[in-house]
Amino acid sequence: MLFDQRITGITFPASDLVRQLPTANKELLQIVEGCFTPRISGNQPADDIVTRTRGYIRGQLGSGLCNLESCAQQLHIHLRNLQRELAKNGFTFKKLVLDMRMELARDHLRNSDMLLSDLTDMLGYDNQSAFSRAFNREHGVSPKQSREASRTKGDNN
């Protein structure tokens, strides 16, 4: 095992997948095969690529490792193929990152008292002003104004 690496994962020979174990649990095998077989075969549907890319982005936003190259590596797809599949579905990696950031930002501004500086870090922005500019560009208001507006609506309900 290697720690402090860019990507966390388990690597083992494919031959281990077919090795018979005397204490094998057939139900557990079905679950494991359901999780790993699509990744091994490489036959994922294109729309699943968008879902899987979103999942990767959500998990990596604040880590500093959220980039196209590491996403392709994590999803076991060539970088150019990932770009093509996203484009076929009307997306770019950059757009998916922005959409995820804005979705999480709106949710946290509405439903939590998280400090804007903490939210900035969680979303993977370099600084609070970069986050505020991006949020304002997308929503036409600052994060602070959005939070205040959602609280005002909540008070009126």
In short:
With 157 residues, this protein is mainly α. It is 64% helix and 0% strand. It is built from eight helices and no strands.
What does this structure look like?
- By secondary structure, the protein is an all-alpha fold.
- 64% of the residues lie in helices and 0% in strands.
- The chain has 8 helices and no strands.
- The chain has helices at residues 26-41, 46-60, 68-75, 79-88, 93-111, 116-122, 128-139, 143-156.
- α2 packs across α4, α2 (46-60) crosses α5 (93-111) and α5 crosses α8 (143-156).
- It is elongated, with a radius of gyration of 20 Å.
- The N and C termini lie far apart (53 Å).
N-to-C CA distance: 53 Å
List SSEs in N-to-C order: HHHHHHHH
Quote the average pLDDT: 82
For the secondary structure, the number of strands is: 0
Shape: elongated
What does the main sheet amount to? none
What percent of the residues sit in helical stretches (DSSP H or I)? 55-70%
Class computed from helices, strands and strand pairing: mainly alpha
Number of helices: 8
Radius of gyration: 20 Å
- The unreliable regions are 37-44
What portion of the residues fall into strands of 2 or more residues? Answer: under 5%
Secondary structure topology:
Blueprint: H1 26-41, H2 46-60, H3 68-75, H4 79-88, H5 93-111, H6 116-122, H7 128-139, H8 143-156
Helix pairs in contact: 2-4, 2-5, 5-8
Question: What characteristics describe this protein?
Answer:
157 residues, mainly alpha, elongated, single chain
